[in-house]
Write a structure and sequence with these properties.
By secondary structure, this protein is an alpha/beta fold. It contains 22 helices and 23 strands.
Length: 639
């Protein structure tokens, strides 16, 4: 029997239903009054603040939904946890090297994010990874020049290399990771021309293939990295130019969002063999960069599902340290500084999207007449008979008959043999039968017949959310990424509706119709009935990685309002930053429209209407003021 049919309902029931304590990593919970809370660790203990309190405070400041909410404390907590976990593993295993964290700017290039990472991460010397000239400029302007590490990945031209070489003079440890053999001659030529010896790394193409959605970054067919032959050629070229001492880092990107810890161990083991041999070739080395791979448990299932992970952060750190020691110690190779470029787990928890529901479509049958009109088709009479005879014992038979009669009636309508009114009566009868079947299934302890497993989804409500999936959750649309989605209030009430969420765009793909479940995913989300005159807020969690930069201007919906919040130890919170979302004028500028030109063209149209006598001068002014207000307005749905 469905546990949601129980009479009493508490926040604890909602916590289990939405599995918030499984995917929330200790940062999110529910209060007794039924509101999602953000939980921030402090030396004196954890402090919880209601998301509804934050939403209320933001609304009082004049910011509308949808809203991207950033909790600065969580970014700090993730940086600290990553560094402290590696530190603990290094101390426990008596590892001879240290850990160096590096954040890949591509994961979230937003200024607030990078500045907070640079500021808080300074205590751990947390560095940045740049994959383009623009990202290198961000890194150099964000980090201090006191030996801060900047890992330079991607394809590098002369301008990129010159900038990184000159940064060395300012005190930055810019390491050029060679992705292709064509980069080495440029590095050698520019370093000699400027008289600056570079720090060089090489990216090896591992044969080990890891699991997960992004496993194409590993294996022989990876588009990045050097083959074994190319590695040797570069070593020989460096020797020839008396620059082998510049080779200090081996980069082996394991993948992104790797769910299985065994894959990580295997990849690190292979990376160590490369490292050992480079040392034996005479390179000083010193850094082993294992790239990304550390996963986020979006499902909270602690499994090897592609959107989960079957290991903890402590296991990840300990396994890496163990494998390196077990591989290097027999060869007598000094333990290197372990570098990881953990982007997703650093920023995912930090941001969540909050939006309101502005409309709901129910698939509820209208009241069914006691009997069909005598002149109606025999098939409609058959539907009435099926409805009257429906019992828990006849569910399958009733479903089969109803589906058959429905299809036949639709064919008759196409041929003009029944009227629109008759078809409407039939469709309503079908809906009533299917609803009663679902009700019987909800109270049944038996196995649901295969044909009926999708019936609940067919009858689910559509909740229309004030958001654009393409702008705020592009990975959900593009690659099927699952994010935790749940209401952020009324969680002490039983959610009695099953729904999917449609966004505000006029596109059938603008929907959220896959949600986390105990055994993976489900196609509907339990929600509460929307009360007239009251806002209903839904949160999408763990959206801090990639979503903001990948956003798409579908239907010209722009960036949402953004608010950064810092929770205080006394339970209060400060709104540290407010960023207004794009106005319509902003968005039009992105696609080469000029707001002043648009206003002038519309003014001329209105003036012509005055001359024709279609509107008065006063009406003209009112229309123009409304047009101007529209240009200044938010791109999303307003009340």
């Amino acid at each position: 029997m469905n546990p949601r049919l129980k009479q009493d309902w508490t926040s604890e029931d909602s916590a289990r239903l939405y599995r918030v304590r499984d995917w929330g990593a200790g940062y999110f919970d529910l209060s007794a009054k039924g509101e999602v809370t953000v939980k921030v660790p402090f030396p004196s203990g954890d402090v919880q603040v209601s998301l509804m309190e934050i939403v209320s405070g933001v609304s009082e400041r004049g910011l509308q939904m949808p809203l991207l909410l950033r909790i600065e404390n969580l970014l700090d907590a993730r940086i600290a946890l990553l560094n402290e976990s590696f530190r603990a593993s290094i101390e426990q295993k008596k590892y001879g090297g240290r850990y160096q964290g590096v954040f890949p700017i591509k994961v979230n290039q937003q200024r607030q994010v990078i500045e907070e990472i640079a500021k808080f991460g300074a205590r751990y010397s947390h560095g940045l990874e740049a994959g383009s000239k623009a990202e290198l400029i961000i890194a150099l302007s964000s980090l201090p020049g006191n030996d801060s590490m900047v890992v330079c990945n991607g394809y590098k031209d002369r301008e990129f290399i010159d900038l990184g070489l000159r940064a060395r003079k300012l005190g930055y440890r810019c390491i050029f990771v060679i992705e292709t053999p064509a980069e080495l001659p440029i590095i050698i030529e520019r370093s000699k021309a400027l008289g600056i010896r570079p720090f060089i790394g090489m990216r090896a193409k591992l044969a080990t293939t890891v699991g997960g959605h992004w496993n194409k970054t590993s294996g022989d067919r990876s588009i990045f990295g050097l083959t074994t032959t190319q590695l040797i050629e570069i070593v020989d070229a460096l020797k020839k130019h008396d620059m082998l001492d510049c080779l200090q880092l081996l980069h082996c990107h394991l993948g992104s969002q790797i769910p299985n810890i065994r894959d990580i161990r295997q990849a690190v083991m292979e990376a160590c063999r490369y490292y050992i041999n480079l040392v034996q070739e005479g390179a000083p080395m010193g850094y082993l960069d294992l790239g990304g791979g550390l996963a986020v448990d979006y499902l909270g299932s602690r499994s090897n599902h592609t959107q989960s992970m079957n290991y903890t952060l402590d296991e990840y750190c300990t396994d890496i340290v163990e494998v390196i020691m077990e591989s290097l110690d027999p060869a007598g190779v000094t333990h290197p500084t372990i570098v990881t470029e953990s982007g997703r787990p650093t920023v995912a928890y930090y941001s969540l999207l909050v939006f309101n529901v502005f409309d709901v479509m129910h698939f509820e049958p209208a009241p069914v007449p006691e009997a069909p009109p005598p002149q109606e088709s025999p098939l409609i009479h058959n539907l009435y008979e099926t409805l009257q005879r429906l019992t828990p014992a006849t569910i399958q038979h009733s479903f089969n008959n109803t589906a058959f009669y429905r299809d036949e009636i639709r064919e008759m309508f196409k041929r003009g043999q029944i009227s629109l009114r008759s078809r409407a009566l039939a469709e309503n009868l079908v809906l009533e039968i299917f609803r009663r079947i679902v009700d019987h299934l909800e109270t049944s302890d038996g196995e649901i017949p295969p044909e009926l497993t999708g019936l609940r989804e067919q009858l689910a409500d559509i909740y229309y959310g004030n958001l654009s999936v393409f702008q705020s959750l592009p990975d959900h649309w593009a690659i099927g990424q699952i994010f935790p989605v749940m209401p952020i209030h009324r969680l002490d009430e039983r959610p009695s509706r099953e729904a999917i969420i449609a966004d505000i765009t006029c596109d059938s793909d603008g929907r959220i119709d896959h949600f986390i479940d105990l055994h993976g995913t489900r196609k509907t989300l339990p929600l509460h009935p929307v009360k007239p005159g009251e806002e209903y807020y839904i949160g999408v969690f763990l959206v801090g990685a990639y979503q903001e930069t990948l956003g798409d201007l579908h239907n010209l919906f722009g960036d949402t309002n953004v608010v950064s919040v810092r929770v205080n130890e006394d339970g209060s919170f400060d709104v540290t930053r407010e960023n207004q979302g794009d106005s319509i004028a902003d968005i039009l500028g992105y696609v080469q429209y000029n707001a002043k030109d648009i206003q002038e063209r519309f003014r001329r149209t209105a003036e012509q209407a005055v001359r024709r006598g279609a509107i008065s001068v006063a009406e003209r002014q009112e229309i123009l003021e409304g047009f101007s207000a529209g240009l200044r307005g938010y791109t999303y749905y307003g009340r």
